[in-house]
Write a structure and sequence with these properties.
- The chain has 8 helices and 4 strands, in the order αββααββααααα.
- It is mainly α.
- The strands form 2 sheets. A two-stranded antiparallel ribbon has the order 1-2.
- A hairpin with a 7-residue loop joins strand 3 (167-168) and strand 4 (176-177).
- Helix 2 (98-115) runs antiparallel to helix 8 and helix 3 (120-162) packs parallel to helix 5.
- It is flat.
- The chain starts with 11 loop residues before the first helix and ends with a helix.
Length: 317
């Protein structure tokens, strides 16, 4: 027998659930259904309409004036009170003017000084400064010539008394190094350097023979060039001496130590020469600069201030 497809209609739970669903749907529909518009009615009549506004802000007058000084400062006096009536030109307040007065006094004093010439006392003081600077410069010139002479003596000693121990016939046209070098090319280069040093020392000696304080600056400059060449020669020779060993030279360690000591003495003596000439150069340049500055200052003060500088200072006043 075929079962009926609608037998679930006989089930009570079906009806219970159906009722619950219908209740929920009805509730939602009632809650969301648009409500009818609500109107308020009033009889038309002529009268006053009042609107209240509540806001936060600043109350300002219709007309006002913002007062301020042209510069900042401390107020020294107030001439009016709140509510007083004032007119154009009436003073309202004033600043403490002590600082401005001091600046004015200083500017006026500077203007007066610029407008006047040197006093006898100022003239004498400035002239004394120039005289002192001139004396200092003259002494520096003499010291420079002496320093170059002493530098020559020390430099010649470094070469002739010490480094020449490592050459045969060092002061001839064919000097020959008599210690081991790493190659014949190195030996030939050292021989040529030693020959050049003889020329350098001769030129330096000739410079001193005709030296004078007026040419001290040039003399110092040339001496520094000579020293640079001699220093290069001694440095190259020092490298060779310091590379010696009993194995590569056939000399005992004692003899090598003596050679190293001799070479170090040569370098030390040359450094004394360099220091003497360099110190003279520094002193000479400083004295020349001091004299030039003193002369320029004296000349400027004698000529007085220019019209433009006086006018500029007057404008500041």
């Amino acid at each position: 027998m075929k079962k009926s497809r609608f037998r679930f209609l006989k089930n009570k739970w079906f009806w219970i659930i159906l009722v619950i669903v219908l209740i929920i749907v009805g509730y939602l529909y009632a809650k969301t259904r648009p409500k009818a518009a609500s109107f308020q009615y009033s009889t038309a009549a002529i009268g006053n309409v009042v609107e209240q506004v509540s806001v936060t802000g600043t109350v300002s007058p219709v007309g006002k004036a913002a007062l301020a000084f042209e510069k900042s400062g401390v107020i020294s006096h107030i001439y009016v009170k709140v509510g007083d009536r004032v007119s154009t030109g009436d003073p309202i307040a004033s600043l403490d003017s002590a600082t401005d007065q001091a600046a004015l006094d200083s500017a006026e004093a500077t203007l007066a000084d610029m407008s006047s010439g040197l006093t006898p006392e100022q003239y004498a003081a400035d002239q004394a400064t120039v005289t002192t600077a001139s004396t200092t410069y003259a002494n520096a010139l003499l010291d420079a010539v002496n320093a170059v002479h002493n530098g020559y003596v020390l430099a010649r000693s470094a070469v002739a008394d010490y480094s020449d121990n490592f050459f045969t016939n060092p002061q001839t046209a064919n000097p020959t190094i008599n210690v081991r070098t790493d190659s014949s090319a190195t030996a030939l280069a050292m021989n040529n350097e030693r020959l050049q040093i003889s020329t350098v020392l001769d030129n330096w000696q000739n410079d001193m023979a005709s030296a004078s304080t007026t040419g001290a600056s040039v003399l110092v400059s040339r001496a520094q060039g000579y020293l640079s060449t001699i220093k290069s020669f001694l440095s190259d020779l020092s490298n060779i001496i310091n590379a010696l060993s009993p194995g590569n030279s056939g000399l005992s360690q004692t003899m090598i130590n003596n050679d190293v000591s001799t070479m170090n003495t040569a370098l030390s003596t040359l450094n004394q020469s360099i220091s003497a000439v360099s110190g003279a150069d520094t002193e000479l340049k400083s004295a020349a600069s001091g004299l030039s500055q003193a002369q320029n200052t004296f000349a400027l003060q004698q000529s007085g201030s220019t019209p433009n500088s006086v006018a500029s200072q007057a404008a500041k006043v």
